[in-house]
Amino acid sequence: MTLLAVPITRGTTDEAMADIRRAVGGGGADAVELRLDYMTGVDVAEAVAVIREVGGAKTTVIMTARDPAEGGQWRLDDAQRIAMLVKAAPTGPDYVDVELATWRRCPEARRELTPLLGDGRGRFRLILSSHDFDGRPADVEAIVAATEAEPCHVVKIVWRAESVCDNFTCFELMRGRQGRAPEKPVIAIAMGEAGLPSRVLAKKFGAFLSFASIEADAGSAPGQVTLGEMKHLYRWDAIRPTTGVYGVIGCPIMHSMSPAIHNAAMSECDVDGVYVPLRIEPGYEPFAAFVRGAMDRPWMDVRGLSVTIPHKENALRFLDEVGGEVEPLARKIGAVNTLVFDGADTVGGLNTDYAGARDALLEAMGCDRSELTGVPVAILGAGGASRALVAGLRDCGCDVTIYNRTFSRAETLAAEFGCRAEPLDRAGSLKAKIVVNTTSIGMHPNVEATPLPGEALRRDMVVFDNVYNPMETRLLREAGAIGCLTVSGVDMFVRQAVAQFESWTGRQAPREVMRRVVVDRLTRH
Ligand code: ATR
């Protein structure tokens, strides 16, 4: 079983004890890594006693005194660090972690620690580790092979992810080549945002452990996920070897609400899956390298991916390149926001943005799509979001006028989809049944801005704002005040996620649960 370990990096006994209690008490960590290099003012025996008392005998205790060259806190030399470990040995750690480099260059390390190696009864097992905070070492395989050849029990390698593809290497090391379990258990972590999957999916691929921090940014390595996030957001307890992998590709991606919404839906419906953020730098090549890499590794069980800015066009190009099926309207929009994998080498693409918006409108209006034929619609904005809305509403037969600050953009889009174009400053006199804002005007923090003067609104209008932060924009507030039907960007966001979930799982999505996740997140900030 893959352990979930929390590093303790506090300098005083009181602080360290508080963290230990949180980690192995309510937090539910299986292991604690005592970072002796940080804990210079802490009574280590007491720390171990508290771990045993609060977490029970099964809680694994790991100790390390990290070399400053590999992320250690204080300028402690080899001899000092080895002395710390030897001194702490009688307190009964289950594992001691020493850097491979220290082990090799420092005869005292081998001489002093070797007699202490063993399994229980005052002896500990040895983790030999290598860390590179600057990037990926050229010879990951060679480092792992060299570590395995030493008399250690666990092989650990950590480096700063250079791209999301570094996760592939981590997964391969964890599960072993050709799916044959490695001779010794492995910890393989890609640090940083792009490496987050190596932490969350460690359990799926059978790693020895993964780390989580007590608090955000309190961790001893960049990109560490908190214990609460690991357990609740990323479904740690539900992850098993069969778990399907889902995720959202974008850049930036850490503020995406999609992991929260989809993981909550999977929990609610007992779907054997986990959904992670996948940071992929802009450009077609980085996008294609990851998706191709995932498809080349059927054992990864990638089932579905959401695609967001700046990769929606790349997703379409990729599908064309691999001969994947593309939903006709997604092709017309020129953007795919959902990839659906059916087995290892079959992938298809959808655009659930336009359907999400259309369905949110239809529900609010209590009508079906046939009733939209000929309905006059004003769309404010002519960017990417507008394009999806224009295509979706034209597909329903709406009579669309596009208003945009840069008139030429409105004209181009209008010509393509058979609509009219107007400059945005004429929107004040618009006559439409449905008004849709796709500009970013009114978005946090400029919450007092509005794309349409209040006088332009009439009470028989349906007003839809694509902006969802704040949930009630000034436009929606003013529209609601005079009795218009209003549809918020939250409705669209939830619906596009609902459509994704259903296309991946074939199950009915728990819409209310998903909506609550989004509303909770938006009202918390
Ligand atoms: P998205 O993909 O979210 O649609 P986009 O392609 O950058 O983003 O488009 C943003 C839209 O909001 C555009 O229509 C933009 O108008 P321009 O084409 O004139 O740039 C519009 N927009 C953004 N900020 C605006 C502002 N302050 N006033 C008027 N329109 C604005």
For the structure shown, list the relevant keywords.
525 residues; alpha/beta; TIM Barrel; eight-stranded parallel sheet; six-stranded mixed sheet; elongated; binds 2'-monophosphoadenosine-5'-diphosphate
Written account of the structure:
Helix 10 (about 260-270) packs antiparallel against helix 19 (about 510-525). An 8-stranded parallel beta sheet has the order 7-6-5-4-3-2-1-8. The chain has a 6-stranded mixed beta sheet with strand order 10-9-11-13-14-12, sandwiched between helices. It starts with a strand and ends with a helix. The model has no long low-confidence stretch (mean pLDDT about 95). It is built from 19 helices and 20 strands. It has helices at about 15-25, 45-55, 80-90, 100-105, 105-115, 140-150, 165-175, 195-200, 225-235, 260-270, 285-295, 310-320, 330-335, 350-365, 385-395, 405-415, 475-480, 490-505, 510-525, and strands spanning about 5-10, 30-35, 60-65, 95-100, 125-130, 155-160, 185-190, 210, 245-250, 275-280, 300-305, 325, 340, 345-350, 375-380, 400-405, 420-425, 435, 460-465, 485. It folds into 3 domains: about 5-240, Aldolase class I (TIM Barrel), CATH 3.20.20.70; about 250-350, 3-Layer(aba) Sandwich (Rossmann fold); about 360-485, NAD(P)-binding Rossmann-like Domain (Rossmann fold, 3-Layer(aba) Sandwich), CATH 3.40.50.720. With about 525 residues, it is of the alpha/beta class.
Structure summarized in a few sentences:
It is built from 19 helices and 20 strands. The chain is an alpha/beta fold and 525 residues long.
